[in-house]
Amino acid sequence: MTPRIRYCTTQAGRVAYSTTGTGPPLLCDSGWITHLRAQLELLSYGAFIDRLAEHFTVIRYDKPGCGLSDISGGSGGSSPRAGRPGGSGGSSPRAGGDGIDLSFDAQTAAALAVADAVGADRLRLFGASQGAQVAAAIAARHPERVQAQVLYGMCASGHDLAPAQVRDSIVALVRAHGGLGWKALAGAFVSDPTDEEIAGLARFQQASASAEVAARLLEVYYDTDIRELLPAIEAPTAVLHREADRGTRFELGREAAALIPGATLIPLPGASHLFYHGDWLSVLDATLGFLTEQPDQAPQLTARELEVAELVAEGLTNQAIASRLSVAPRTAEAHMENIRRKLQVRSRAQIAAWVTEHRLGPKSAR
């Protein structure tokens, strides 16, 4: 699979993304550092994505400062819908060694900007490790956009991953020498790694991010606490966690699942933290089993929104709709935005087509 790379603008600079497969959109965040091309050759990652793409349009992206994304910093302004501040824990607003915004909020904004770029107003999420925190934050802050999500190998607070002294030592080692840092982490990420696997992980790290960016992203992860966000999640959620995970203890995943209303905890055998190592097929089966059982729900418009949609189908402008309904023009515009978001459309013609398809009209309001 050779990905076709596109770019979108975020507050942290241009972010690279790619899509593969067909079906409902599935936004994937695989965690710490990324490289859209090199990652496909790492262990069983490419096979995992291929299997997901049999059921979904898989959307992947390189985090700010990583892989094929902009590594020079700078901002073109993120999508106006790409997240709002707050709830990120202790990450600083400007986090990159080269002026790139690597904060947790910038990462969630970048993910949403990618979803906007591909026109995925409503989507499913797959997040692993630090990417699970990003996915969970999106679901909590933007419930209208997330249909369902799978969170793998997650923790609610990065402080719980290791004692402060250990966290500081690992960050310092990654910052001083990325290759040695990967070797130090290999035992936590992969159970019983071979020399070849350690070398492959080190090459991937060097291709994905500079030592400074990798260290800062790890530092942000350690400093992020989303416990207060988890109870706000409304989307159906499955928390997958290997019972002997060496990188993130099983009880941390269990804690996160307990904080998410209605979440399903799915314990899995194994010790590798990377979902694409070891028995990756069990992770795939659990992911597909949960995500494919979530039906594509029909949009639910309020009575007023249905009324506005019907008037759009009649050809009325926003001003005319406001006059007909005796509401302020700004209120009519707000209804239009809600309708576009819920129907996942961008034009008035698409709204009119939806009304026709569902046999709505002036009589339906009576």
UniProtKB/TrEMBL annotation:
<protein>
    <submittedName>
        <fullName>Alpha/beta fold hydrolase</fullName>
    </submittedName>
</protein>
<feature type="region of interest" description="Disordered">
    <location>
        <begin position="70"/>
        <end position="98"/>
    </location>
</feature>
<dbReference type="GO" id="GO:0016787">
    <property type="term" value="F:hydrolase activity"/>
</dbReference>
<dbReference type="InterPro" id="IPR036388">
    <property type="entry name" value="WH-like_DNA-bd_sf"/>
</dbReference>
<dbReference type="Pfam" id="PF00196">
    <property type="entry name" value="GerE"/>
</dbReference>
<dbReference type="InterPro" id="IPR029058">
    <property type="entry name" value="AB_hydrolase_fold"/>
</dbReference>
<dbReference type="GO" id="GO:0003677">
    <property type="term" value="F:DNA binding"/>
</dbReference>
<dbReference type="InterPro" id="IPR016032">
    <property type="entry name" value="Sig_transdc_resp-reg_C-effctor"/>
</dbReference>
<dbReference type="InterPro" id="IPR000792">
    <property type="entry name" value="Tscrpt_reg_LuxR_C"/>
</dbReference>
<dbReference type="InterPro" id="IPR050471">
    <property type="entry name" value="AB_hydrolase"/>
</dbReference>
<keyword id="KW-0378">Hydrolase</keyword>
<dbReference type="InterPro" id="IPR000073">
    <property type="entry name" value="AB_hydrolase_1"/>
</dbReference>
<feature type="domain" description="HTH luxR-type">
    <location>
        <begin position="294"/>
        <end position="359"/>
    </location>
</feature>
<dbReference type="GO" id="GO:0006355">
    <property type="term" value="P:regulation of DNA-templated transcription"/>
</dbReference>
<dbReference type="Pfam" id="PF00561">
    <property type="entry name" value="Abhydrolase_1"/>
</dbReference>
